[in-house]
Design brief:
With 130 residues, this protein is mainly alpha-helical. It is built from five helices and three strands. The protein has a three-stranded antiparallel beta sheet with strand order 1-3-2. Strand 2 and strand 3 form a beta hairpin.
Length: 130
């Protein structure tokens, strides 16, 4: 067995991917991550599971639900074969939602920049008169 084919237990995947064992079990329960089992029922994951968990974390952090992620994953696994109109619509809708969040965050950042500038100016004036 090569290093690429090596399997890891759930604790190692948890440590390498930076997520809890509980999260990994949840991902499996939702059908987002798969493992094989030893005769003692211990979960074993391939090396590629680390990248899969990173992807899942990014999608969750972007606000996608488990259900939405499950809809999109077939496109990750076999993009040319599993794209449907529904999947494309979901991807476009999520991108638009993320774009709206980015726009709102940029506006908030601009407001915060203005507050920082005003507060900095106030402190400079205070120091100058002290």
């Amino acid at each position: 067995m090569t290093e690429k084919d090596a399997l890891m237990r759930i604790g190692e995947l948890s440590a390498r991917a930076g997520v809890s064992v509980r999260s990994l079990r949840y991902y499996e329960q939702q059908g987002l991550l798969t493992s094989t089992r030893t005769t003692g029922a211990h979960r074993l994951y391939p090396e590629a599971a680390v990248d899969r968990v990173y992807l899942l974390r990014r999608l969750y952090e972007a606000g996608l639900s488990s259900e939405t992620i499950a809809t999109l994953l077939p496109c990750v696994d076999a993009p040319a074969e599993d794209v449907t109109e529904e999947t494309l619509t979901v991807m476009q809708r999520e991108r638009e939602r993320i774009d709206a969040q980015i726009s709102a965050m940029l506006t908030t950042r601009s407001h915060l920049d203005a507050l920082i500038e005003a507060a900095s100016g106030h402190l400079r004036r205070q120091r100058a008169t002290a």
